Amino acid sequence: MINFNYETDFNLENEEAFTDWLSAVIVSEKKNEGEINYIFCDDEYLHKINVEYLNHDTLTDIISFDYTVGNELNGDIFVSIERVEDNAKDFNVSFDEELKRVLAHGILHYCGYKDKTDKDAELMRSKEDEKIIMFHVKR
């Protein structure tokens, strides 16, 4: 079950389309869908989590807490809408595309993909691109 929660004024349009897409992303990685909670928030909210739980005094676009058990993906994915907006401008892409990239990124972490090394980050970016394309494919 994929849930969307809001700690800011943002509201995801067409939650059903995003839920269907994220479920398909999980299946495409041969994983099972458990309970995944997306929490949309602002920079301040996510910064507090970053400092308190990860001891990182920086802004970030996404923090995911992975509670996956075996092949069943479970977790909480916090997304700063302010960072997504800024990143979209920085990368010269639409807000919608950058949001999809971030949403897929969290799921891909749960699937075991990393992004700390250049090689891992390259694979992660490739997987994000692959999953974004899936959003536009009719199922």
From TrEMBL:
Keywords: Cytoplasm, Endonuclease, Hydrolase, Metal-binding, Nuclease, Ribosome biogenesis, rRNA processing, Zinc
Ranges in a coiled coil: none
EC number: 3.1.-.-
Cofactor(s) it depends on: Zn(2+)
Cofactor descriptive note: Binds 1 zinc ion.
Gene Ontology CC entries for this record: cytoplasm
Biological process, per Gene Ontology: rRNA processing
Physiological role: Single strand-specific metallo-endoribonuclease involved in late-stage 70S ribosome quality control and in maturation of the 3' terminus of the 16S rRNA.
Enzyme class, broadest EC rank: hydrolase
Organism in which the protein naturally occurs: Flavobacterium hydrophilum
PANTHER family membership: ENDORIBONUCLEASE YBEY, CHLOROPLASTIC
Family statement drawn from the similarity comment of this UniProt entry: Belongs to the endoribonuclease YbeY family.
InterPro entries in the cross-refs: MetalPrtase_cat_dom_sf_prd, YbeY
Domain of life, source organism: Bacteria
Annotated Pfam families: YbeY (PF02130)
Cellular localisation: Cytoplasm
Record: residues binding Zn(2+): H105, H109, D115
Protein name per its UniProtKB record: Endoribonuclease YbeY
Sample GO molecular function, one term: metalloendopeptidase activity
